[in-house]
Amino acid sequence: MPIHLALRYASEELFNTHLYEWLAQTTKNPRMREILLSFASQERSHYTFWQQWLSEKATYPKWRFWWYKILLWLFGISFVLRLLELKEHQTIEAYRRLLPTLPPEPQSTLHRLIEDEEKHEAEFINAIRAEEPRLKYAGFIILGLSDAIIEVTGVHAGFLGMSHRPLAAGLAGLIVGFAASISMASAAYLQAKQNPSISPLSSALYTGISYIVAVVILALPYFSFPSTKAAFWWSVLLAVMMVLAFMYYSSVIFERSFRQEAVESLVVLSATCILSYGFGEGLRYFFADALQLFF
Predict the structure, then answer these.
(1) Do 156 and 222 form a contact (C-beta atoms < 8 A)?
(2) Which residue has the higher pLDDT, 289 or 200?
(3) Within 10 A of 235 (CB to CB), how many other CB atoms are there?
(4) How confident is the model over 149-199, as pLDDT tens digits?
(5) What are the pLDDT digits (tens) for 226-284?
(6) Whole-model pTM?
(7) Which spans in the chain are helix H?
(8) What is the spatial distance between Cα 283 and Cα 277, in angstroms, rounded to a whole number?
């Protein structure tokens, strides 16, 4: 057994053990806690298997634990567990490649470890889908956020092109965003009525609230910076950060390509900013006299 492989796998299994134990303490759902503690117990036995090949105790970087705490706070337990299982899926493939190189007895034990990991994947996804409401409505949250980012960033850019005043652009974004959030929530309500497995009211609330939250975040720079350029670029930076965060979330939860979705969303965002700003500049050029009465 190569020592560096045993050390790597022992470190990973020890980290998973501690993380599952900590997640079990944080959840208020008894069924979820039972599942997580079961996972932790199995991961500890996996760690013991790899540790037997080492002369000193395996460890893992402490920053990893804090990173997952941040992810839990931002995205919820569904995201964290899904991310863990995606990584464990890669570990299973590595175990399978290592399997033929081991003696009969360790090979049999490793085969049992692989079966445990595969069982984890099926059990925990079923439990999360049944118990974690945010996963049912993740599509509505992403719909509200992504639409708000694209639409409101376009409104800001257009009003900046027309007035060159950050306050006017910020107010326009809030007004348009508030009206659009009601419209999006209504559309989500009607869409959800066609699906008996989800609540129309919850779908509307998730969509509308996520929309208005994005609107407020994007408008903040326009009330904080007197400079047009500073306000615009800070708002665009916030929009890009939110796009990347939401695309990362959806790529993990729904097993999509993060790179492809992120690139597509950023291209749409950039095109919206350019076209909206250009349209605003065009209005400013043709209606300069009339606009002086308002801006």
Answers:
(1) yes
(2) 200
(3) 28
(4) 777 777 767 666 666 677 777 888 888 888 888 888 888 888 888 777 778
(5) 877 788 888 888 888 888 887 787 777 777 777 777 787 778 777 777 776 676 666 66
(6) 0.66
(7) 3-26, 30-51, 62-75, 77-98, 104-131, 133-136, 138-163, 166-192, 200-224, 228-253, 258-286, 288-291
(8) 10
Distance in angstroms (rounded) separating the CA atoms of residues 269 and 246:
14
8 A C-beta contact, residue 66 and residue 77: no
Residue with tokens 């134990």: 21
Q: Which domains does the chain have, with CATH numbers?
A: 3-133 (1.20.1260.10), 137-291 (no CATH)
Query: Cα separation of 42 and 228, whole Å?
Result: 57
Distance CA(148)–CA(40), nearest Å, equals: 40
Q: Is 150 within 8 Å of 272 (Cβ atoms)? A: yes
pLDDT in tens, 138-157: 777 777 777 777 777 777 67
Q: How far apart are CA 198 and CA 193, in angstroms?
A: 8
Residue 125's pLDDT is what? 63
CB atoms within 10 A of CB 91: 18
Q: In 3D, which of 42, 36, 265, 280 has the Cα closest to residue 145?
A: 265
